Amino acid sequence: MESRQPFLHRVGEAGSRVGKKPPRSRKVRLALQIGLAVLIFGFLVLTVIDQWAEIKDEGVHFHVGWLVPAIIILPVFFVLSAYGWDLTLRFLGYRIGFGRAQVAWGQPLLARYVPGSVLYVLGRLLLSERAGIPRRITIASIVYEQAVSATSAIIVASYFIIQHPDLQGDAWRWGVLLLIPAAIVVLHPRVFGPLVNWALRKFGREPLPAFIPTHGIIALIAFYTLNWFVIALGLYCVARSVTTIPFEDVVLVGSAQAIGYVAALVTLIAPAGLGVKDAAFAWAMKAALPSKSFALGSLIAIAVRGVLTLAELIYVGGVTALGRREGWSIQTGIIHPSPEEEAVELEEAERQAQSGMRAPS
Questions:
Q1: Whole-angstrom Cα distance, residue 216 to residue 140?
Q2: Is the model's pLDDT at 78 over the cut of 90?
Q3: Does any domain span residue 360?
Q4: d(CA 168, CA 162)
């Protein structure tokens, strides 16, 4: 009698097959595409509805002129974030190309609003695989991306946490500095490698063929840290559209967003950090405000959420247009091969068919 595989092995095997081939039926493919689109859009609508009462109560009066540079700068943050993932893949020995990295990273971005972020990860897996990146390499790159992003966020937020007026009496606030070297040690190949391969063995998967060297980790942390200053400038413009903030506090605004990012990453209870990130950002923002008002910080957090969502839509629209033009299209998780890829697959199928006809019975 054949022995049954361990449960985690079966989970890993099932995961390796997900999305390999789209459904044959056109109606099924259409239903999946419409269903996933409605699901994602539904969570976006619910987010707006949930915050609409608070927006009306606060009585928003925007200085629209400050929103123009914000809408220009914030999509650049997403472009650089995708490029950071591209650099991560290069350190792992794979090149996907700048344009295709933008599509693979950015086109599924709105799927983060669905709880669990499963659709977001799956979309990146499928698009990366279409570009020739093995799934386990993509998974490793996402793990590295999250770890490096968190480390850079801690670097940006550490000074802010130490100087925050609400924490001046707490000696533990200095402990945030210990997280920086700890994260670098964990990401060292001699530590990260055995940990990841142990987890892969539990799921019955093969070990990773490569890991990012220490100099690559340091370079990525530096790159992501610099990118935080880009979003800091964009968010400062958003905050300035609501109230007056000295320009020298632009780093404090970026640090506030970094704190919100870390809070959302640690809790993992909301899609795209909704609610958790906003509350942490509002708490941190009050230190940058002359009035030290949490209510005003909350109002800025609502404005930031709206403008960031608009910047995401602009960025996703741009990379979606690029993907369709180049034949790298994905419709909410269902990949459509380009005409060139279809021709190659058809030629391969004909070759296999002819080989089968010549083979002896």
A1: 14
A2: yes
A3: no
A4: 7
